[in-house]
């Protein structure tokens, strides 16, 4: 599959839909306008790649809905050269969005098949995350902590403590919390011990799974 003018036209329409739904961050919209989302999914979904929908990828997982990716990324409020940890690399689409924003991305995936496939794929597309890790996101990635931002792209039944403790003071954790459906939650680390918590709307993610490695 290639990226063509037809795809670019559809991307522009998707960006318009996201603007209508309330996404304002210009850098986020520009990243979505740039990234060939159709290449991140199975070719059988190519015609639908620029609809604002989640789709199945390998290993029973999904590529998140573009609105969700945009909403979470907007909440992270990243700046160039920020250090961001992503939990749930999946297709690598969210990773690519962060790379487009000039962020140093660290990302963890617990399914080996996806980890390997996405690592090769991102490199082929020319995206260079700092580090892709095969492991358990509940533990975060202590070696490279602290982070300016942490984004969890699977539904967490509770907020894992290591993720809070691996944030810089001033850093932001964006995490969908819940089992059947999730409340998008933002934690801002105000000091060593204090966190401010903000809740947003309901979303639906595949579950953040524990201890299966
Ligand atoms: N960011 C991805 C979303 C993929 S869906 C994208 O843009 O496509 C969520 C991903 O989280 C899945 O790939 C799933 O395998 C992964 N995941 C689930 N539990 C995890 C855990 N404990 N640690 C790391 N990744 C996990």
TrEMBL record:
Q: Which organism is it from?
A: Aquimarina brevivitae
Q: Which UniProt keywords apply?
A: Cytoplasm, Methyltransferase, S-adenosyl-L-methionine, Transferase
Protein's recorded name: Protein-L-isoaspartate O-methyltransferase
Question: Which Gene3D superfamilies did the record assign?
Answer: Vaccinia Virus protein VP39
Q: Which gene encodes it?
A: pcm
Kindly list the GO CC terms recorded for this protein.
cytoplasm
Biological process GO terms, please?
A: methylation; protein repair
Where is this protein localized, as stated in its record? Cytoplasm
- Which residues catalyse the reaction? 64
Briefly, what is this protein's role? Catalyzes the methyl esterification of L-isoaspartyl residues in peptides and proteins that result from spontaneous decomposition of normal L-aspartyl and L-asparaginyl residues. It plays a role in the repair and/or degradation of damaged proteins.
User: So what family is this one in?
Assistant: Belongs to the methyltransferase superfamily. L-isoaspartyl/D-aspartyl protein methyltransferase family.
